[in-house]
């Protein structure tokens, strides 16, 4: 364990200290949520870097903390078959890799992670596609007045669609269980 990570680990165990005047010793406070997310990103990046080395796949790892989440991106300057295989058909491998990365963070921090993993911009491209699906469903609901059921998708993707549908002034609900969980868009 490095000196920096040892210091960080020790600071998490220290309880808030106050001197006689009641002033808090800042050095003994628990790390902020931002530093926790940064730590989460570092752990995830180390895990993913090791995976890329084992698989002999080239890629750069970027870490960003925004909106209370850690976003990890693996990108390559040139299109590589290896990174595409980590996305898989319909992002299935990417979803599994994201869950494994979250488990690595959980194992190291004993805290659940909501980190989002993207590879070669797949999620960004998929977000655009999901917004188009929401717009098309909203148009159909407005035209027919009947609810429209969408294809099953992950919780993360459903969140994107729910937000897009709400922005269009309609209502959406998730229905179904497990892999069959999907969104129904309606006027009420």
In short, what is this structure?
51% of the residues lie in helices and 16% in strands. With 188 residues, it is α+β, with helices and mostly antiparallel strands.
Tell me what you see in this structure.
With 188 residues, this protein is α+β, with helices and mostly antiparallel strands. The protein is 51% helix and 16% strand. The protein has six helices and six strands; from the N terminus they run ααββααβαβαββ. The protein has helices at 3-13, 33-55, 81-87, 92-109, 122-144, 155-167, and strands spanning 60-66, 69-75, 116-119, 148-149, 171-175, 182-186. The strands form two sheets. The chain has a three-stranded mixed beta sheet with strand order 1-2-3, with helices on both faces. Strands 4-6-5 form a three-stranded antiparallel beta sheet. A hairpin with a 6-residue loop joins strand 5 (171-175) and strand 6 (182-186). Helix 2 crosses helix 4 (92-109) and helix 5 (122-144) crosses helix 6 (155-167). It is elongated. Residues 1-30 have low confidence and may be disordered.
């Amino acid at each position: 364990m490095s000196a920096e990570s040892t210091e960080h680990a020790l600071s998490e165990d220290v309880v808030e200290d106050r001197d006689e005047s009641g002033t808090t010793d800042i050095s003994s406070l628990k790390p902020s949520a931002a530093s926790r997310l940064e730590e989460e990103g570092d752990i995830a990046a180390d895990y993913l870097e090791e995976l890329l080395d084992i698989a002999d796949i080239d890629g750069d790892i970027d870490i960003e903390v925004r909106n209370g989440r850690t976003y990890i991106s693996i990108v390559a300057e040139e299109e590589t078959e290896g990174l595409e295989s980590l996305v898989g058909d319909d992002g299935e491998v990417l979803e599994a890799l994201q869950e494994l990365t979250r488990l690595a963070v959980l194992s190291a921090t004993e805290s659940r992670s909501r980190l989002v993993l993207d590879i070669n911009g797949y999620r960004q491209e998929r977000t655009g596609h999901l917004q188009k699906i929401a717009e098309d469903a909203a148009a159909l609901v407005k035209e027919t007045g009947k609810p429209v059921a969408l294809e099953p998708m992950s919780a993360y993707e459903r969140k994107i669609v729910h937000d897009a549908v709400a922005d269009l002034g309609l209502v959406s609900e998730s229905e179904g269980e497990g892999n069959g969980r999907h969104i129904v868009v309606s006027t009420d």
